[in-house]
Amino acid sequence: MITTDICIVGAGPVGLFTVFEAGLLKMRCHLIDALPQVGGQLSEIYPQKPIYDIPGYPEVKAQELVDNLMKQIEPFDPSFTLGERVDYLAKQDDGSFVITTSDKTKVHAQVIVIAGGLGCFEPRKPVLENLESFEGKGITYMVKDPEQFRDKKVILAGGGDSALDWTIFLSDVAEKVTLVHRNETFRGAPDSAAKVFDMANNGKIDLILSSNLTKISGNGHLQSVSMKNKAKEEITVDTDYLIPLFGLSPKLGPIAEWGLNIDKNAIEVDTTDYSTNVERIYAVGDINTYENKLKLILCGFHEAALMCHSAFKYVYPDQKLSFKYTTVNGVNAF
Amino acid sequence: MVTFEVEDHDGNRQPIEAPDDMGLSLMEVLKASEYPVLATCGGMALCATCHVEVLQGKDGLGDATDPELDQLEGLPEMYDTSRLACQIRISDQLEGAVFKLRGEDQ
């Protein structure tokens, strides 16, 4: 089990800056994020988008800000669990918490800080009957370990870069790869699209265009996928796996079940310290709500600073916290 | 001012009156009208969470740009009438149009 002072749920800009503010007060942090990399929506959705309202930066690209935040928190050596969603929260007798992730990683912390932005990014799912009953039993939304598909029949669905890239990659791993796309052309990288068409012409993959998924079938494990083209003709293809690749969308996820006061998918907080209705759980950044809330990164930074000063009493109950400027003390690593 | 209709996820339609001289996008007007539009990327055609279907008035909107089509084609469901609300400017061309919310509910 990982043990830390503060467990931060969400490794976006506000979650990262929370590490810095906590570190100034000698509180150690562990961050968990459902995405496989830090940066949250900045890295996942708009890494090249310029941001103009970060103090001291007339203009900064989203990914550059994330990179700089990572550099800023280096002295405090935070630990990370990435690519795993937080699932369960268990309160301990002493008031601390144990968080369990989707991959069963456990983190023990005195304080939980939810900095989850708009929620965890989950795959967009096609509308298919019984879809969820086949999840983990032939349907998967990401390729974590390509070896899982060695010598198997795989159908990928989608027309973006992920669908093209994984089709090309898995064609050397799987027994058979089929790519299903609703249009006749791909808007992904032209080189990748050309390669996919070449592979289809050479019989290395099956390409089914102008078609949409309509039905999945199996007996305990996925066995076939049906699709219909624009002429309403339906075909069924036997398969071991279906990988729908339609991008990601933010969802609040299991946090909604933690007993927190929630209003329109945002967590209600006390603006004196951004604490929630559950003692030792705080919420900062886009995921919280209060009167006159502004969803700005700089507001999240402010919330993180106040929140850390409040959390100090749980991590160091016997110590009195006195406020000091970094200009006086500098940034002292552990 | 221009008036158009919005159909929510439950099929309820309501007229919306919006200024056509402020350079607003449909996404901004929907959010201001408290519709559950995520608009994660803030209106740069980068996330497709403001997906709408144009039920009436498509001809007045002009063609979707490549970045808009890139996002729409990445969705599990795309319709011939699909657009991103963040890429639709409020103008008098929208008079009488009808939009159906298709993006994920907030």
UniProtKB/TrEMBL annotation, chain A:
<feature type="binding site">
    <location>
        <position position="86"/>
    </location>
    <ligand>
        <name>FAD</name>
    </ligand>
</feature>
<dbReference type="GO" id="GO:0050660">
    <property type="term" value="F:flavin adenine dinucleotide binding"/>
</dbReference>
<keyword id="KW-0521">NADP</keyword>
<dbReference type="InterPro" id="IPR023753">
    <property type="entry name" value="FAD/NAD-binding_dom"/>
</dbReference>
<dbReference type="InterPro" id="IPR036188">
    <property type="entry name" value="FAD/NAD-bd_sf"/>
</dbReference>
<dbReference type="GO" id="GO:0004324">
    <property type="term" value="F:ferredoxin-NADP+ reductase activity"/>
</dbReference>
<dbReference type="GO" id="GO:0050661">
    <property type="term" value="F:NADP binding"/>
</dbReference>
<protein>
    <recommendedName>
        <fullName>Ferredoxin--NADP reductase</fullName>
        <ecNumber>1.18.1.2</ecNumber>
    </recommendedName>
</protein>
<keyword id="KW-0560">Oxidoreductase</keyword>
<comment type="similarity">
    <text>Belongs to the ferredoxin--NADP reductase type 2 family.</text>
</comment>
<feature type="binding site">
    <location>
        <position position="33"/>
    </location>
    <ligand>
        <name>FAD</name>
    </ligand>
</feature>
<keyword id="KW-0274">FAD</keyword>
<feature type="binding site">
    <location>
        <position position="46"/>
    </location>
    <ligand>
        <name>FAD</name>
    </ligand>
</feature>
<feature type="binding site">
    <location>
        <position position="327"/>
    </location>
    <ligand>
        <name>FAD</name>
    </ligand>
</feature>
<feature type="binding site">
    <location>
        <position position="121"/>
    </location>
    <ligand>
        <name>FAD</name>
    </ligand>
</feature>
<dbReference type="InterPro" id="IPR050097">
    <property type="entry name" value="Ferredoxin-NADP_redctase_2"/>
</dbReference>
<feature type="binding site">
    <location>
        <position position="41"/>
    </location>
    <ligand>
        <name>FAD</name>
    </ligand>
</feature>
<keyword id="KW-0285">Flavoprotein</keyword>
<comment type="subunit">
    <text>Homodimer.</text>
</comment>
<feature type="binding site">
    <location>
        <position position="286"/>
    </location>
    <ligand>
        <name>FAD</name>
    </ligand>
</feature>
<dbReference type="Pfam" id="PF07992">
    <property type="entry name" value="Pyr_redox_2"/>
</dbReference>
<feature type="domain" description="FAD/NAD(P)-binding">
    <location>
        <begin position="5"/>
        <end position="295"/>
    </location>
</feature>
From TrEMBL, chain B:
<dbReference type="InterPro" id="IPR036010">
    <property type="entry name" value="2Fe-2S_ferredoxin-like_sf"/>
</dbReference>
<keyword id="KW-0408">Iron</keyword>
<dbReference type="InterPro" id="IPR001055">
    <property type="entry name" value="Adrenodoxin-like"/>
</dbReference>
<dbReference type="GO" id="GO:0051537">
    <property type="term" value="F:2 iron, 2 sulfur cluster binding"/>
</dbReference>
<dbReference type="GO" id="GO:0009055">
    <property type="term" value="F:electron transfer activity"/>
</dbReference>
<keyword id="KW-0479">Metal-binding</keyword>
<feature type="domain" description="2Fe-2S ferredoxin-type">
    <location>
        <begin position="1"/>
        <end position="105"/>
    </location>
</feature>
<keyword id="KW-0411">Iron-sulfur</keyword>
<dbReference type="GO" id="GO:0140647">
    <property type="term" value="P:P450-containing electron transport chain"/>
</dbReference>
<dbReference type="GO" id="GO:0046872">
    <property type="term" value="F:metal ion binding"/>
</dbReference>
<dbReference type="Pfam" id="PF00111">
    <property type="entry name" value="Fer2"/>
</dbReference>
<protein>
    <submittedName>
        <fullName>2Fe-2S iron-sulfur cluster binding domain-containing protein</fullName>
    </submittedName>
</protein>
<keyword id="KW-0001">2Fe-2S</keyword>
<dbReference type="InterPro" id="IPR001041">
    <property type="entry name" value="2Fe-2S_ferredoxin-type"/>
</dbReference>
<comment type="similarity">
    <text>Belongs to the adrenodoxin/putidaredoxin family.</text>
</comment>
<dbReference type="InterPro" id="IPR012675">
    <property type="entry name" value="Beta-grasp_dom_sf"/>
</dbReference>
